[in-house]
Structure formats: C-alpha cells, structure tokens
Amino acid sequence: MVFEKYQNQSNVILFGKKTAFTGIVDEIKEQNENQKFVINLQHPHSGKILIKLKPYPAYERGDIIKFEGTIANYRDFKKEIYGISNYPQNKLIGKKGGAIKLLTGFKNKIINNIKMVLPSEKSAFLSGIILGETSEFSRELKNAMSKSGTTHIVALSGYNITILVKVVFGFLIWFLNRKISFYITIVSIIAFVLMTGAQSSVVRAAIMGGILLLAQQVGRVHSIKNAIAVSAFVMVLFNPKILRFDLGFQLSFLAFIGMAYLLPAIENFFRVNKEKDFFNMKENLLATLSAQLAVFPLLISSFKSFSLFSLVSNILILSFISLTMTLGFIIGALGFVSYYLSLVFSWAVYPFLTYELLVIKLFGQMPSAKISDLNIIFSAIYYLMLIIFIFYMNRRPDKRQI
Questions:
Q1: Which domains does the chain have, with CATH numbers?
Q2: CA angle 232, 236, 242 (to 5 degrees)
C-alpha cells in the first residue's frame, strides 16, 4: 500500500517526562492569542506532535525549533499526531530550506501584501477565503462563522482552484500558447496545494481541476462524476485512514457528490428556470441545499448541532464570494509590483468584505438547533431516501428541455 510504504513511520515519543526534543514546524493551526502548530520530531525522536505556545516569538512552517518540556498523549489520526506539549521552553535554531520554505515565504508575502492595504479583520478574512489562512481569526469571528454555517467559506475548495485557474491560465494565454499555459497552470495548482498545507478539500479540488484541464487540453469530454471517483481513489490510495478519521475529506466529498447528483434532481423537481437568476441566487440556494442535505447526518453526528439560518446566510454571501476571491488574488499579486495598484483594488473589495462580515456576524447571533445524536439506522434510511429521489427524478422527463 502506498500509504504504508511512504507515509507510515514508527513513532519514537517519550511521554510524561521532561525532555529536550527538536522539531520542524509542519503546519500552523492557530496564531492569535496563542500559537498552536504541528511539528515533525527529529532524531532521536520521530513522529508528529502538537505544540502550544505563547503568541511570541511567532514561528512559521519550516522553522527548526529546540524544545524542552513534557509530551502528553494525544490522538489525531487524520494528521498522524500522537502527542501534545503545552508551553515548553523553545528556541529557534534554524530554518528548513527547499520548496516548502520558498512557498511558505511566498504565501506570507501575499498575506502581508493584503495586510498593507486592508484593516486587520478584513485582511485576515480575505486571507482566509483565498489561502485558507485562519490563524489570525479572532475567537469571535470563528464562533460567528460556526454558528452561521459559513465556516466552509475559508475551507480551501473548488472555488479557490477555479479562481486560481482562471487568473493564471487567463493571464498566460495572452502571451503563451495553450500547451505551455496548461503546464504552467498545472504547476501553479500543485504549488498552491503545497503552499496551503494540502488540506483534503483543496487536494480533491486540485485533482478534479487537473482532470478538467487535461480533458480540455486533449479535447475529451469531461465527466465530473468520474473526476470525483478518481480524486477519491488517489487520496485514499496514499492515506486510507482519511476514510475513517478525516472529517474534512468526508464532508468535502459528500458535499460535492450532493452537488453532482442531488442538485440536478432538485432542479428538475422544482422546474428551475436559470435564465432569470438575479446574482445567481437560485443557483447558490440549490447548490447550498444539495450540499447540506448530503452532509446533514455526518454534520450532526460530528458537531451535534446545525445552523437554522445557514441556507439564508450562504445565499447572501456566496453570490459575492467569487468576485471577492478574484479581487483578493489580484491584490495579493499586485502587491509584488506596486503598493498603490493593490491599494486601488483594495477599495473595490472593501465593501464586499464589509458586507460579508456583517452577514456572518448577524447570522452568528441567530439560534442553532441542538441534536443529541443520530443513529446509524436513521442515517441509512436518510441516504436511501435521497438515492431513491435522485433515481426517480432522473427518470422523470424534464419539461424545461421539452
């Protein structure tokens, strides 16, 4: 198995005893009131552990740090993390070079470009929706997004890859031929995945985006359903544990399956006319509904609650999020060229960010439903009913086409 061959390694971690250990920062999880990040332990230890520190000095991916403290037991099978150390003594002793350092520096520069032209909360939110960087989100904003059902906006996904492809490929095609533009765009997608930490949702979106670009390049018909299957197979091949322990993987694929299979059935059921769709309101409503219906049992089982107004909040935000992300990528890129150019585009994105944050905070104050649990029988019956509905609507003639 690929996962066993390349990723699985024995963990050498000394628990419950004060010891000195060295690690390389692999992932930043939080960087606000406290720092929380994952490190790869170095010889003579091995494995991954979670570190919690005070906010300063601030560390970044690729930093090599020497610690002295106690490691306690901790389990995060999704990330292969098996220990945690709270507030150990720490000292920066070096930085890892190579592609990760280069990409991390590039990402931090983009974030700094955005910070230079926007206030702190708006720059943090914009960095979140284009790069998935939530380490500087306030606790209040995180709670508001959770309660309003809009947390997925900052979970890297197909939106990000789509905007990236449009910006990069659309720019390159003006100067280069289609073949060279295709290869550079594919490299850009891979770099983006590595730069943002290779989250399950963005890996899935990257694979599917790559398949779509390849189909267009070779002149073949693209099947989104086949792309879902291929991307899931590749990810499980490299790490089969994500099927059981990676909630992000499960939610991402269920939501996308809902939009691929359930959305057309719902559109047929309601006889939706897309020709008169103000700001894509109908499309956003039905897409959000399809995704939420697909993930409902898993969402309740995992979080024991759901937002009663998430459909409304998502409709109000998603109509503008694509434009906001596009402007965000442009601001981040222009910051390398001219501060004043990026400042001009920040004026354009400012009202959208103000509006989106207002919606999030408003609906974050709305009540949410609490559910103790859903048993497996209910979930099985629920998905069976969805499958029957999809099959029935697929066989039902679409009068819109007639």
A1: 2-96 (2.40.50.140), 103-158+241-395 (no CATH)
A2: 105
